[in-house]
Write a structure and sequence with these properties.
The chain is α/β, with parallel strands linked by helices. Helix content is 45%, strand content 14%. It is built from 20 helices and 22 strands. α8 links the parallel β5 and β6. α4 packs antiparallel against α5 and α12 runs parallel beside α14.
Amino acid sequence: MSFTVRILPRWLVFLLDLFLVCFCLFLSRMLKFNFNWDNLGVGLKFMMSVVLVLNAILFYVFKSYAGIVRYTNLEDTSRLVMVNAIAAFFYLVLNIFVLKSGNYFTLQIVAINFFITSFVIISYRLAVRYCFNFYKSLSYGGVKVQKKKVVVYDTSADGLHIKKVMNSLPDGDMQVVAFLDDSFSTAGKLLEGIPIFGTHESSLAKLSAEGVEILILANKQMETGKLNELVDNCLTHGIKIQQVPAMRDWLNGKLDTQQLQNINIEDLLEREVIKIHNEAIYSELKGKKILVTGAAGSIGSELVRQLLNYRPSVVIMCDKAETPMHEFLLEITEKHKNANIIPYLGDICDKQRMEHLFEVYNPQIVFHAAAYKHVPLMEDNPSIAVLNNVLGTKTLAELAAANGVEKFVMVSTDKAVNPTNVMGASKRIAEIFTQSFFRHISDGDGGDNTNVTKFVTTRFGNVLGSNGSVIPRFKKQIEKGGPITVTHPEITRYFMTIPEACLLVIEAGVMGQGGEIFVFDMGKPIKIADLARKVIKLSGKEPDRDIQIVYTGLRPGEKLFEELLSSAENSKPTYHEKILIADVRQYDFAVVEKKMNKLINSARQHYTLETVSLMKDLVPEFVSNNSIYEKVNVKQK
C-alpha cells in the first residue's frame, strides 16, 4: 500500500506557528515564576493578545510560514530567528515606553521566551523534515530503497550545495556518504555529519570497499595533472566519475541525477593548456573584415566563434558544404544576434568564385582552414588532395596578395613534417608555396614588406573532438558494444583541444610578420591505445572484458610517431615560452612555382603515380610508408 505525502496548507502552518508562540510565552512565564500558579495568570490574557497580533504581522511580512516544512533549510531557520528577535525587541519597547510596568514583558521573560520560541518552532520543523526523510527511505511495504553511494569532490560551497541537492531529491537514487578534499586541514573532519577523506589512493580504496560507486566532481577548476591523478585512482578502484553541469543548464533550476555527465576525455588532456594573454589580438581584429575558409568544419567554426568575441566589422564564412554551413549559421546567429555574419558557399579551387568573394567583400584578414585532412582518403585520391590543399591555397594566396589583404593565416598540421602520406605532403607543399610567395612579393617591393600581405602558418597536432577524430569514433564504437579499433599498440599522437588550437591560430595571425611557421609545445605525445583504455573506463566499462581493443595495422601512409619539427629544422623563441617559430629550409619561388604548376596540371588530369612523383620532387623528405607509393622513385637532381 502506498501513501501520498501532502504539503500542509500555508494557513495551517501559520496557525500552528501562532499557537506555538503563545504556548512558548506561557512556558516562559511558568519558568519565570517557578511554576507559581498565583502569579502566572496576572496579565496573561493581555500578553497573549499582544503576542498573537505582533507575531501574526511578522509572520505575514516575512512569509515564515510559506516554506515547505519538510524541506526546512538554514535560510528558513534564519528567518524564524530573525522574526523572534524582532518580536522580542518590540516586547521590550512596549514594556518600557507604553506599559511602563514590570509585570508584563520583563527582560527575563523576553529573553527566556526568545530562546524557547526559537527552539520549539525550529525543532518542530526539523522533526517534520526528519520524519519525511525517513518516510522517503522506505519503499512500499517498508523495504528500504537501495541507493548508490556517492562521494563529492570539494568541500567548498559548491560541494555542500551538491550534497544538499542530491540527498534531498524526492526520487533520487543516490546518497552522498562522504566528501573528498585534497587539503590536509579538512581531511578526517566532518561536514554536516558526513566524513571528509583525502584524495590519496588509500582513501579511495577504503571508500570503494565500503560500496561507493560514483565520485561527483563539483569543482571544474582543477589542474589537469591533479584531475588525471584523481581520475586514474578512481578508475583503478572501480569508482565511476561524473560531473555536475553548470547551474544554468539545470532543468527548471533544479538538478536531477539524470543530468550528471561523464567526465570528458578532453578534460584529461595530459598537459596544461597553452594560455594566451595578448591584448594586441583585440586591437588587431576589432573592426576588421575577416574571411574564414572551411568555416563549417571543426576548426573553421570554432575560429568564427572566437573571432566574434573581438568585434570584427564582418566575418565572411566560406565553405562548400551546404548542410553543415546551414546548421552552423543557425547556431551562430542565435548566439550572436547582432554580429555581422555572411555565409558564402564556394569552393576554394573555383578561382572565379573566389575572385567574386574578394571583389565583393574585400576581406582584410584571411584565416585559411579549408583542407582535406583524412589520411586514408587522400592516400587513395592524391590528385584531389593536390587540387584542394595545394591549388586551393595557391588560389587564395594569390587573390589575397592581389586584393591587399593584410594577413593570411594558414592552418597546417604536424603531418607536414617529414611526411609519409599524401595528405601531409600536400600541406607541406602549401607551406612551401606561401612562404616562398611571401618572400617573392616582399622582394618585388624593394624589400619593404610593410604594404604586402603577410603570410603565416601554424602547425599543431591532432585536435580532440574534431570531425573524424579518434575520440568521437571511440565513443561510437563503445555505444555499439565494441570493439574499439586501434591501428597499432605503439602509435602515438599529440593532442590539443579545438578552442585552444583556434586561439593559437588567431594569436599567430597577430604575432606573425610574414613568412613564419609557428609550432607549439604540445607536451608529451599520448599513446592511442592508452587513450582508448581511458575512454572505455570513463564510460563505466572495463577494457578487454566489456569492450575489446582490436589492432588493425597501420593504414596506408600512416606512421607511428608525429613530429612538429623535422630533423633539418631548428626553432626560434617568441614572447611566449610555448610558442616557437620553425627555422625551415628556404625555397626559390621561381622553382617552386614551376614545379607546382606541373604538379597541378598532373592532378587535373588525375594521373595518380605521376602526381605523387611530382609531390616527392617538391618535398624530397616525403617518403611513403605502408603505401603503394613506396615504389614511386624520385630522381635526385
